[in-house]
Design brief:
By secondary structure, the chain is mainly alpha-helical. It has three domains: about 50 residues; about 70 residues; about 160 residues, Orthogonal Bundle (hpI Integrase, Chain A), CATH 1.10.443. The chain is built from 14 helices and eight strands. The chain has a three-stranded antiparallel beta sheet, with helices on one face. The chain has a three-stranded antiparallel beta sheet with strand order 4-5-8. Strands 6-7 form a two-stranded antiparallel ribbon. It is elongated, with a radius of gyration of 33 Å. The mean pLDDT is about 85.
């Protein structure tokens, strides 16, 4: 049976002689405690307070944050990799508030919790909590989202991208590396693949005749998994420098294109510390770049070469917004190149009419012959 509660007028009076109102309700069934809240000036105030308390006791409102997270992840439709990352991010919230009822979550406590998170994933963890609590509002388990009201969540400042200045720098680093990792570095800068995609490439993924490499998988914490998103499954064109890097690889019967010295996949963590950084120091590269900066280099070179941003988005497996946000400003000569392209187009189309035909050129008029009278 639904819980209704009761509003009543107390015998006590206020100093001005007016009535005092109160409300009371059962906490859990007909034989449970019946707390009473009083001190309301009007019957309407007491009724509003009663409705708020009954809302807190409504079935479902007793759900804890940990229970909500599990329920949300069961029904959330996304790629397995996305679900896994979302669960990892939400674990930071459930570690602090897992046993807290949804109706007891407070914005000031969430704000304080956010400040304890590392800056690297502070924004994403807070955004994940907001996402789950938005569902709670939609499911009528909450009236408002406590992770949104009074909890600022500014985007973290991404470190400045540091693409390599020229192919000479990349080749100088490759010369300091081994017979496999050297060509791998050049190939990475020539295709823009993520390091996790680069180390799992197989020979069957390369189509020399079609001059393309097909990206289908990635290495995540030592396990082969599908690409980051559906967009990440793609064909990347092979420019001459990438094909030349493949020609420098030693002959092998293995399936992997860039295998580790003892077989299997290259450990990117060890590669960064033991080979990548020392090679840059030996080549005199300043400042030291990350392996991921090879991808930034590909994007920068492509934009400077005039590759359309729509095509670059497909080649890199990234959205247009991400390309523009992270890489667009790196093309320092982009405006000059755009002017050159537009001027060339204007010159090429100046002699054409709107119907697509060249205007007929009139022949010079011949001098008229005098009339004989």
């Amino acid at each position: 049976m639904a819980q209704h509660g009761q509003v009543l007028k107390l015998r006590a009076r206020r100093p001005d002689g007016k009535a005092v109102w109160a409300c009371r309700y059962r906490v859990n069934g007909s034989r449970s405690k019946r707390p009473q809240r009083g001190g309301f000036a009007t019957r309407a105030e007491a009724e509003r307070a009663l409705r708020r308390e009954l809302e807190r006791l409504r079935p479902g409102r007793r759900m804890t944050l940990a229970e909500l997270v599990e329920a949300y992840l069961r029904v959330h439709q996304a790629a397995p990799a996305t679900i896994e990352k979302l669960r990892w991010l939400l674990a930071k919230a459930t570690a602090a508030f897992g046993e807290v009822r949804l109706v007891d979550l407070r914005a000031d406590e969430i704000c304080a919790w956010r400040g304890t998170l590392p800056e690297g994933h502070r924004f994403e963890a807070t955004q994940a909590l907001r996402q789950v609590l938005n569902a709670a509002v939609a499911w009528q388990l909450l009236d408002v989202n406590p992770a949104r009201r009074g909890v600022a969540n500014p985007l973290r400042r991404f470190p400045e991208k540091r693409p390599f200045e020229s192919w000479d720098d990349i080749r100088a680093i490759a010369a300091q590396l081994g017979p496999v990792t050297g060509p791998m570095v050049v190939f990475g800068a020539g295709t823009g693949l993520r390091p996790a995609e680069l180390v799992v490439l197989e020979r069957r993924d390369v189509d020399r005749g079609g001059r393309a490499v097909y990206v289908r998988r990635q290495l995540v914490r030592g396990q082969i998994k599908p690409t980051k998103t559906r967009r990440s499954v793609r064909a990347v064109p092979l420019q001459a420098v990438a094909l030349a890097a493949l020609d420098q690889l030693p002959e092998s019967d293995g399936a992997l294109l860039f295998p580790a010295p003892r077989g299997g996949y290259i450990d990117l963590h060890n590669f960064r510390a033991r080979e990548w950084r020392p090679a840059q120091v030996a080549a005199g590269i300043e400042p030291i770049r990350r392996p991921y900066d090879l991808r930034h280099t590909y994007a920068t070179f492509a934009l400077r070469a005039g590759v359309p941003i729509f095509d670059l988005s497909r080649f890199m497996g990234a959205s247009l917004a991400m390309i523009d946000k992270h890489y667009g400003h790196l093309a320092r000569d982009g405006r000059e190149h755009a002017v050159t392209l537009l001027d060339a187009y204007a010159r090429d189309t100046a002699a054409w009419t709107p119907n697509g035909r060249r205007p007929r050129q009139r022949k010079p008029a011949l001098p008229r012959r005098p009339r004989h009278r």
